[in-house]
Amino acid sequence: MSGLPQPIVHDMRRAKRLEWLTLFWMSSVVVVMYLAMGSSQAMKTAFLEDMLSLIPAITFLIAARLEPKRPSEKYPYGFVRVNSLAFLASAVVLTVMGGLLLFEGVMGLVKGEHPTIGPITLFGQTVWLGWVMIAALTYSVIPPVILGRLKKPVSHRLRDKVLHTDALMQKADWMTGLAGIAGILGVGLGYWWADSAAAAFISLSILWDGLTNMRTASAELLDGAPRELKGPAISQEAKRLHERLQKRWPEATVRLRESGRYMMASVEGVADPGPLPSAAELMGGDPAWRLGHLSFVPPSSPPDDPPDSG
Amino acid sequence: MARLVFAGALGILLAGCDLPRDPEGTESLVRSRQTIRLGWVSGARPDPAAQATLAKLSRKFGARVERHAGESEALLSELEEGRLDLVYGHFAESSPWATKVHLGEAEGAKKKPPKDRHAPRFAMRNGENGWIMAVARAGSGAAE
């Protein structure tokens, strides 16, 4: 399989444009957050979360470049699964960072660290750095929430897990911003623990994202059945395809797996599949391009015997 | 939900005009004791800008300055434990104490001195953000 199916070319272009916009806007957020960071643990955690949010965008853009490449001698099945590899890598990074930041936040609470958010001189005025942090956090929420909303429908049409995860994480970014602001205001009101507590809360959300993504990514790498974009449940499209294939070849064993955004079907135990229906026919009302590959395996003779190892 | 969050945030902002406050209440203790417990690192030359900052603080809180002379190590430990409100000495920004206490800006300096240069500064207890702000404001006013 090489190139992209025609029906998704337009959406793919749009997705790439959105991811480039994400890189631009999130980099601006990262710079603003860095400048206002100070010694607040909540700010540091929110800053790192914003930095981590660049990873899905980068992995998507790299994968999108490799995916349409022609199969080569070394990679005869092409590069459609680059997507899955990228997804697993970003899930691992999220999990590790989430774990580390959670540890730091909890240690801050255990040690009773009193965070200092001191003064800063702006235009000759001595201002509390907390106000600057709150302004930075407020800004940090706006681009991701808008971009997340724009990406979600595109990710559905493309059946793209990296893009979908990216969209969900960004859509939920307002919680990070709000938690950060609550932490800073808490410190301002004299509650020293508010900062570490907010940091722990934000890192929990990073860790949660990482763990759920890892679960979905592993399913694909273990050749599990195609999953829903939203979670680990088997996709409805896959169930319908399975049903249709089974109906057409009732004596066969039908197995489905997922490769990137495509479904791979294997119909086993059929000596002669007869005239083959088109992909559109097999997919019913679902997008035909999703069926990336259909293969038939003849029955071993005599049936139920283990395959000959010679 | 969004309206509730907005109203809450507005409420906090309006109530927060006197932010930040101290978790251990240094500012209000200085006010109620009418005393600023100042540690003076032995041998530290007095600096006119620092003197002006102290005078301004003392006026603002209606508090007299109670001087305790000693070695910097001992004084900074006392500050960390809350037995002093302020320590004056010549400290570098890169000092290992910089994570345990809050070191203020160099007194009377127009430009920030290099990180490893010892400069006259006040040190305050970590996290006492209201008090830290009060000392910084007194300092920036005195520099004018």
TrEMBL record, chain A:
Localization (cell): Membrane
The annotated topology with respect to the bilayer is: Multi-pass membrane protein
The UniProt entry, under InterPro entries, shows:
Cation_efflux (IPR002524), Cation_efflux_TM (IPR058533), Cation_efflux_TMD_sf (IPR027469), CDF_Transporter (IPR050291)
| Chief site of localization | membrane
Question: What domain of life does the UniProt record list for this protein's source?
Answer: Bacteria
Tell me which GO cellular component terms the UniProt record holds: membrane
- Sequence ranges assigned to domain Cation efflux protein transmembrane in this UniProt record: 30-222
Q: Which key words are in the record?
A: Membrane, Transmembrane, Transmembrane helix, Transport
The record's Pfam families line, in alphabetical order, gives: Cation_efflux
Q: Which GO terms describe its molecular function?
A: monoatomic cation transmembrane transporter activity
Q: Where are the transmembrane segments?
A: 20-40, 46-64, 85-108, 128-150, 171-194
Record's family? Belongs to the cation diffusion facilitator (CDF) transporter (TC 2.A.4) family.
The entry's protein name is Cation diffusion facilitator family transporter
Automatic annotation (TrEMBL), chain B:
Domain of life of the organism in this record? Bacteria
| Region Disordered, residue ranges | 104-124
Amino acid composition bias (Basic residues), ranges on this chain? 111-120
- What is this protein called in UniProt? ABC-type glycine betaine transport system substrate-binding domain-containing protein
